[in-house]
């Protein structure tokens, strides 16, 4: 008899930690969201951990809250990895087919993928997280999606090798060790967000996912159902806030409120006489500022961000050539005017991408800012169903596992220790 499975996704962002607890009940195709929490985070810069204890406190509170909301503990835990240290490299692995009759078996494919990982030339300070197969070649036949059952002598596997720095993984490991969580897998943020937001038709036609986070923007490009490019750019929504603070000579907190309540990336939609009273946000402020000027500041930074994205599309030969266009997600995608500016600069159809429909308390996770966290629980489910191969994403490395110290606490003791460490107990 099938049992109920609980999945926990932990998205550790530069400005927010987002946690989603979802459940798969026997006979139900759609996951039910049981708990969703957003917690402000400090200690991460451009996706890189600089203060593990500060981040661990936010993660502990978020996980504790999600478990209280749901009333369950997780069977599978997925953790997102982000930051500018993420790399994506195309690599080729070559093996000889093992069976005397030349028929390719699953073992041959696994050996070919292992050869891909073995042939990756990386500095000693980098770790592999995913090996994603792109295509196979069997003797003279190219562009094979699944060679199993075919006959030949020489099997080549072309794959994308994706990973990050060892320091980044150690930083994530320290956070999770302090909280008392050992994840079942790690996934880079743009792959998790793609799982939550994109459908197979978009990936077949050609699409770019643009995940605008706090201090980074991730770009994942798909065509013919396969990943063709991935990059992380060192600019995000926080840079917009910083620019407003400098331009208005005000605090970061005030600048963030001005951005959220009056911001737009389209100055032409704002009257030049419209003003924003800064005293509404800070009693020490006495001036009013032009809303049109605020919009000009936002437009300048968003223009730069989207031109960086366009440069990545040019690198992979897809500039202006993706029929399914650009799908904007992440908290920065909600900035008014972002979609219109994307259409202009990228010269592609563009829209905001929302996570796929789930059950339960859906209203808690239906925004683009929850894309990565929702993607992690979806990948958790697929990982359980396929016993390791997730929708073409290989969660494989010993390196990622080494980043998290061993532990053997029961669920109850783990939560008690977590609460004792980070939350006041009577």
In summary, what is this structure?
Helices cover 35% and strands 28% of the residues.
Structure keywords:
426 residues, alpha/beta, Nucleotidyltransferase, domain 5, Dna Ligase, domain 1, 3 domains, 6-stranded mixed sheet, 5-stranded mixed sheet, 12 helices, 21 strands, 35% helix, disordered C terminus
Describe this structure as you would to a colleague.
The structure is a single chain. The chain is an alpha/beta fold and 426 residues long. The chain has 3 domains: 5-84 and 166-198 and 356-422, Nucleotidyltransferase, domain 5, CATH 3.30.420; 87-162, 2-Layer Sandwich (Dna Ligase, domain 1), CATH 3.30.1490.110; 212-352, Nucleotidyltransferase, domain 5 (2-Layer Sandwich), CATH 3.30.420. The chain is 35% helix and 28% strand. The strands form 6 sheets. Strands 11-6-1-2-3-19 form a 6-stranded mixed β-sheet, with helices on both faces. Strands 14-13-12-17-18 form a 5-stranded mixed β-sheet, with helices on both faces.
What is the CATH architecture descriptor of the largest domain? 2-Layer Sandwich
Strand content: 25-35%
Shape: globular
Please count the beta strands (DSSP E, at least 2 residues each).
21
Segments where pLDDT lies below 50 for 5+ residues?
387-391, 396-416, 418-426
Secondary structure: helix percent: 25-40%
CATH topology of the largest domain: Nucleotidyltransferase, domain 5
Number of domains: 3
From the alpha carbons, calculate the radius of gyration and give it in angstroms. 23 Å
Number of helices, where a helix is a run of at least 4 consecutive DSSP H or I residues: 12
Mean pLDDT: 87
Termini separation:
41 Å
